[in-house]
Amino acid sequence: MSPQAAMYQVNKYPGLNLGPGHGQDDEAAATVMFGFWVFLMSDAILFGMVFATYVTSLHGTAGGPGPHDLYDIKSIFIETMLLLASSFTFGMASLALKYKHGRIRLVSWMVVTLVLGIGFLGFELHDFSSMFAHGGVPSRSGFLSAFFDLVPLHGLHVTAGCIWLICLLGQIGRYGLDLKTKLGIMRLALFWHFLDIVWIAIFSVVYLGGLT
Amino acid sequence: MSGQAHNTDSQAETGQQERKELRAYGWGIGLALLLTVVPFGLVQWMAMPRFTLLIVIGAFALVQMLVHFRCFLHIGLRQKREDLQLILFSALLLTIMVAGTIWIMASLATRMAMPGSP
Prior knowledge:
- The complex is a heterodimer.
- Chain A contains 7 helices and no strands.
- Chain A has helices at 3-8, 24-56, 67-70, 73-98, 103-133, 142-175, 179-211.
- In chain A, α6 (142-175) packs antiparallel against α7.
- Chain B is mainly alpha-helical.
- Helix content of chain B is 81%, strand content 0%.
- Chain B is built from 3 helices and no strands.
- Chain B has helices at 3-45, 50-71, 83-112.
- In chain B, α1 runs antiparallel to α2.
- At the A-B interface, α1, α2, α4 and α7 of A face α1, α2 and α3 of B.
């Protein structure tokens, strides 16, 4: 293995590294990506505390509807698949960016990711509205307040991610793939994969845990 | 080494690198699918004691998170910066705060429970 290939093995920053093929941009990314990583970890702490609140409120249904009356496992499974697929398509976008497969391929993968993200949000909103229809409103009980604190917080993050993705598409159209655009795409990739990890915790703790 | 030879050499290396990274994403989504489908299937179709089922769901979730960190976020044991240490430190804080909160609140609930309340 050449020294250059050996260098490849060490990641300079979280996420798919640009590598020496991008010259100076790879160095410039290191600080920015680490800073964003620190933010993501603080966000993880926030999510963790909201999870703790949810778990301690599990028995506070106050005679109202509980998990078995409100959760629909099929819908949750579809949402999980959509989010997982979107993580993979964003990975393909990251590869297209790194190996310079051209703007069309990059933008196509990003658009597919956006569609999957919006599909996820659509199913989630449908879930919430059917919960409302069954009397599962946030003001009904402590349990439902905690639920609507946790799950829509993740939904809001995904919404922010979708808006950010649309902005990046505009940035690619207006400025091309300059350093700022690249760094934006790379940070959104971290954000997107991170949200998928939070969703693992949500479907395991909230939905599967609630339906056992 | 001449410039030309070096160029084709690095091109081949880049192609190899790309295939390797593509495979990592493939492994990532394959393992993640498996680790998602199994707990959903268990909850939907298997009659297991509740406690065992919760343990199994938790174990699958933890392994899937590791897979996502490895294959999608490309966190390895050899990072140039403190990315991995930061995850481990955050995980430590989360464990202390979340487990502590749940423990204290559950203990409070049992101690404060009125006789005859659920």
